[in-house]
Amino acid sequence: MVNVLVQELWLAAQQGRTSDVERLVSQVDHAAVAWALRVSMRNDHVHTTAILLEALPVHPVQCSHREHLRSAAIGGSARALAVLVARRPYALDFVRSNPLNYAAEYGQVGVLQVLVACKADLNGPSCTLPALWHASNMGHVPVVKWLLDQKAAVHSVDGAASSMCMPLSVAAQGARDAVVSLLLKHGAGEVGHDAACAQALFHTLYTTGEHATTIKLLLDSRIGVNRTNAAGKSPLLIACATGDVNTARVLLHSKAEANDIPRNGDTPLTAACKSGSTEIVRMLLDRKACVHTCPQLGQQTPLTAAGNHNHAAMAALLVRRAAQRAVP
Fold this sequence. Notes:
Largest sheet: none
Number of strands: 0
CATH superfamily of the domain at 1-119: Ankyrin repeat-containing domain
Mean pLDDT: 84
């Protein structure tokens, strides 16, 4: 009989049948009421949410409402959420299940508006990444814009130095170009934060997929195109090594140094020869990349690299271009 009542309460809560919820709520235990509350909030039923809340313990130790917040945030149930936080304001203190983050991740601007109106802190201490990071990761442009208008921090996460914690990095890696553009307009690439912006560039270069437009946006924020990472590699060298033709084209158009000589390893031309991208090799040669450069004793020249990797057509191109340059 109890199971039947629980199921009946669940269906009534799901459908927002107020009179049935009022009749059944006193006939089941608190666990069943909490379950029904979660369903009611997920479907944004204000009146049934209020009734179910009244039937639950008020003390925060007994009922944290974490799952109810999560359900409402994910489902976009702004009205039901407003009822919960009005009657149980302590619910927002449970930051390990931060409803701001769920709302941002699922693109629920209305829920975010309710939470911020209830004094939820967009930039307060959190055990997880903040709302702006989640919205940037998912590419929710309206949410990102709203969060930035509400002064969400664009530069840091609880003082974290890791660039992977930066909204700009995660947006760039996901090729969320509209989000990247918004973040840059709100100061993500300002002087003093250019190192983090550069790290976003390098993380993006190592990410598979089409990122040429993203790379251009980052470069337009005045990151030095020939800046190197901790391993001494320039963006162009990375693009050549991965065979990313479009990114290499963007970098060269932005005046990347075709004859870059790294601290160790290959030149861009040698890296392109190893990756097998004839188109990148041709672009580099058009930019006067040196055919014979070998950065260190024991390293391969571009021609040697092409031959060793069985790129016959590429080797022929290198020989032909070297011969043309030798003609006075």
